[in-house]
Amino acid sequence: MEDRLRDIRGGGPARRHNARTIAALTGNPGCTRRAVLDSAGADKPALAQRLGFPARFGQSRFAITRGNAFEAQVKADGGAELLRLVAERLGVPVPPDATWTDLGGDDDRSARSRVALTAGGDGPALFDHPLLGLDVAGQRVYLEPDLVAARLAGRFHVVEIKSFPVIDGQADPAKVAAAAIQSAVYVLALRELLAAEGRDPELVSHEVVLICPRDFGNRPMASLLDVRKQLLVLRRQLARMARVDELLAAVPAGFTADPTADPARLAAALREVPARYAPDCLAACELAYFCRHEARGHTGALGRPVREALGGVVEVADVLALAEGTRAPEPEQAEAAAVLRAAARLRAEALTGNPA
């Protein structure tokens, strides 16, 4: 299987999963194309560029630099300011004996993180950049939360540091939602780590501490995110995702996502693996513009609610024909056809002012 995945991505190192990609995967679990490409570790940004549909989302270099600088500021002095923020938000006194452990580096980082987080000490501790594992579609992927606060208020808390501002107590809802689902990935991975070591997974709190700049300055503030809903969605979607070997069984022989291949060959290959495009993909997947172009004329391009409401009707032209009564519906389309005819009648009445 590893050889097949390497052939699909065109050789070279695989692009590994992170909390963002897992959040995007679980947000659209029916997309076989994305599941195959992510399982193979394909370079989707380079692939989109090669196809002529470059991705138009992601952080700018300036935003990345600003985010790194804000994280370094919050973690300065052994995390003293960060510890104060977290303790105050959790409603506990700032512990004078809290320890700080940097789990960065490349040597046995996953093993060191497991030992440090499950050692069972009594005192409060902060763990900088631990490495956690999670099974995704039959593969083990590794994740790096910003920080884990252990044994504060008797529990473990994932701490996420983001550079988007909280202005007058309000932050961008879309960015907060993205932070919540990414944090839920870390919470789930940490709970599974404790469970594997015989510890109670519920020691990991469902409340994530989010650190952001306050207003227009660079002064950090902390708030709590309740990610119970995101955890339920994440568990359900991960359970539904097909295993990699099952996905590959449906992929044609010779399929390639090598970004150095001929663009026409790449486009033809991708069309052999079904996608599940929705407008939401534009903010989460590097291939979204290619898939949107491919989905023109399909009901899926109008969004998941529209596609689901129309049942098995795939083509927009068929929707219009059913609404006009010029095409007989298939048995499974009868209910959708009745709704479409009623909608067409109401539209006609609204435009003419004369009830039909």
Provide a descriptive summary of the structure in words.
With 356 residues, this protein is an alpha/beta fold. The chain folds into 2 domains: 1-267, Alpha-Beta Complex (Lambda Exonuclease, Chain A); 300-351, no CATH class. It has 15 helices and 8 strands. It has helices at 2-9, 19-27, 32-40, 44-51, 61-74, 76-90, 109-118, 173-196, 228-240, 244-249, 263-270, 288-294, 304-309, 316-324, 334-352, and strands at residues 99-102, 125-128, 132-136, 139-143, 147-152, 155-161, 207-213, 220-226. The protein has a 6-stranded mixed beta sheet, sandwiched between helices. A two-stranded antiparallel sheet has the order 3-4. A hairpin with a 2-residue loop joins strand 3 and strand 4. Helix 2 (19-27) crosses helix 8, helix 8 packs across helix 9 and helix 14 packs across helix 15. The mean pLDDT is 87.
